[in-house]
Structure to design on (231 residues):
């Protein structure tokens, strides 16, 4: 597990070092209309706005050169049906500024919705439980007690891991994957001790093997989930 983590970690770190600068400002939009346009009227032009989408969430990215030196940030937001303006008057950091566009109330809200973060954690934990549960079943675990312990341990470890992944501001994908690798290593250390101590259905060597295999599968599945779901 450690060797695999170190090998995979080596690539993202190099890729990140050579990548372009991260966005200075990200505007999140839930289910953005296809014709939604967000233009920073205070200095930039619409061509400079980078748009991407993950599942139901859209991201509008602005970079430091586009917002540097501005005392306020006035955005023109428009679709085919409506047009309105929103202004950010508070000072922005050089990077990692996140706002959520509330289309219904026509306002920019600092940060991310707590409900959004909780929903993403729940989805990731459920998907991971399904994947690790399949591995658990394939290795022959059938006793009710074993499954209860499996459920409690994984709810604790995966819940903690995903809350940690979601902690803070907006994190670009490469950094989030690095956090996943680090977090999965600590999850493995906990589970390789907890499972052999608490589950008696199989030998300790089998439990250690399960912890290794399940976390290895979870590691790669987590990367796929990060690539598919909102960050």
């Amino acid at each position: 597990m450690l060797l695999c983590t170190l090998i995979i970690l080596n690539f993202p770190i190099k890729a990140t070092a050579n990548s372009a600068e991260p966005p200075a400002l990200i505007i999140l939009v839930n289910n953005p209309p296809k014709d939604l346009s967000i233009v920073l009227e205070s200095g930039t032009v619409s061509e400079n706005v980078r748009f991407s989408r993950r599942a139901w969430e859209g991201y509008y990215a602005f970079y430091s050169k586009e917002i540097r030196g501005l005392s306020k940030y006035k955005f023109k937001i428009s679709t085919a049906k409506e047009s309105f303006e929103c202004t950010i008057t508070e000072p922005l950091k050089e990077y990692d500024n996140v706002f959520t566009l509330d289309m219904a109330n026509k306002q920019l809200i600092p940060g991310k919705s707590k409900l959004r973060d909780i929903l993403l954690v729940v989805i990731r934990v459920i998907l991971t439980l399904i994947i690790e549960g399949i591995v658990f079943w394939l290795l022959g675990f059938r006793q009710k007690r074993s499954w209860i312990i499996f459920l409690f341990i994984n709810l604790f470890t995966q819940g903690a891991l995903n809350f940690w992944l979601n902690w803070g501001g907006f994190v670009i994908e490469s950094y989030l994957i690095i956090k996943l690798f680090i977090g999965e290593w600590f999850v493995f250390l906990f589970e390789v001790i907890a499972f052999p101590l608490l589950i008696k259905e199989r030998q300790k060597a089998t439990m250690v093997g399960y912890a290794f295999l399940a976390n290895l599968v979870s590691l790669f599945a987590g990367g796929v989930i990060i690539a598919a779901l909102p960050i």
